[in-house]
Amino acid sequence: MTHASARQVTCYAMLDTPVGPLLIGGDGSDVLLIGFSGGSRAVAPGRNWRRDDSLYPEARAQIAEYFAGGRTRFNFPMRMVGTPFQRAVWQALLDVPYGSTAAYRDLAAAVGKPGANQAVGAANGANPLPLAVPCHRVIGADGSLTGYGGGLDVKRMLLAHEQQHAG
Q: H helices within 100-151, ranges in order?
């Protein structure tokens, strides 16, 4: 695992969801990492991490509300750990409306780097807080689903879930 925040995670909780178990990791107060159990960027607990499923109650409750169709944004205590460019891209992801999608070029323009589609794609792929920072809403310019760390099936499920519950 290459997430910058992974080095700062000391404890985690697990949450069962419709897309499989999620690992919610952090420093005991802020969530630094949300990880899927499958896909190209599957997350497993670090050797020295301590499991405590009572941790991060707000994050666990809000994620459950999201999957129940009752939440479109997250406001639990979280911290985005990355480079300034990565954080700018992740901040722009928060502006992609629930139930909608955006292309990499849209995010590149939003962060003031038109044409930096590949760099935006790399930052999107390094997002340590999927769901909360909705990188699943980014698609190819031609409307195709592009890679997703949790797997394309999970991305399809998330997008369909949001379209079903939007507006």
A: 104-110, 117-125
Residues whose CB falls within 8 Å of the CB of residue 5, separated by 6 or more in sequence, listed in order: 25, 32, 33, 79, 81, 82, 128
Answer yes or no: pTM beyond 0.90: yes
Q: Using CA atoms, how far apart are residues 75 and 103, in angstroms rounded to an integer?
A: 24
For residue 81, the model assigns a pLDDT of 92
Domains: count for the chain: 2
- The single residue of 133, 135, 154, 159 carrying the catalytic annotation is 135
Range of the domain at 34: 4-67
Q: What is the CA radius of gyration of the chain?
A: 15
Average pLDDT of the segment spanning 132-157? 91
30 and 92 assigned to the same domain: no
Rounded-to-integer distance, Cα 147 and Cα 136, Å: 9
> pLDDT tens across 129-141, in order?
999 999 999 998 8
Are residues 138 and 102 part of one domain? Answer: yes
Give pLDDT, residue 17. Answer: 96
CA gap 90, 40 in Å, rounded: 19
Catalytic site includes residue 11: no
